[in-house]
Design brief:
The protein is mainly β. 0% of the residues lie in helices and 26% in strands. It contains no helices and 5 strands. The strands form 2 sheets. It has a 3-stranded antiparallel β-sheet with strand order 2-1-3, with no helix packed on it. The protein has a two-stranded antiparallel sheet with strand order 4-5. 7% of the residues are buried. It binds zinc ion (ZN) (2 copies).
Length: 101
């Protein structure tokens, strides 16, 4: 039985950082904001229409997991009667195991 561990033993992040883009003027910059903040002030036009491009996706230096089929999107689900949840690829439906080998 493989158990996919999604939580890493690190202190909880309090800030999100990454590439941002402004919906108003299309300015792009690298910004940081407390977690939960989704409307960022654009340094160019000073509206609050900026947003993280990839809110919680992998940043540079992070590992990300990709299915053999190329999909990076997974469902986490638990079938009726099963004690444990499974992580299944959204692209091909195969259960994702062995990510941490
Ligand atoms: Zn702007
Ligand atoms: Zn797949």
């Amino acid at each position: 039985m493989n158990i996919v561990q999604l939580v890493r033993p690190e202190p909880a992040a309090s800030h999100a950082a990454g590439e941002c883009v402004c919906a108003q003027c299309k300015h792009e910059w690298v910004g940081m904001a407390p977690l939960g903040v989704t409307q960022l002030e654009c340094p160019e036009c000073h509206t609050h229409r900026g947003a993280f491009k990839y809110p919680f996706g992998p940043q540079e230096g992070d590992e990300s997991f990709t299915c053999r089929c190329g999909s990076e999107t997974f469902f986490i689900m638990r079938k009726p009667g099963h004690a444990n949840g499974t992580v299944c690829c959204r692209g091909c439906g195969v259960e994702a195991t062995g990510w941490f080998e």
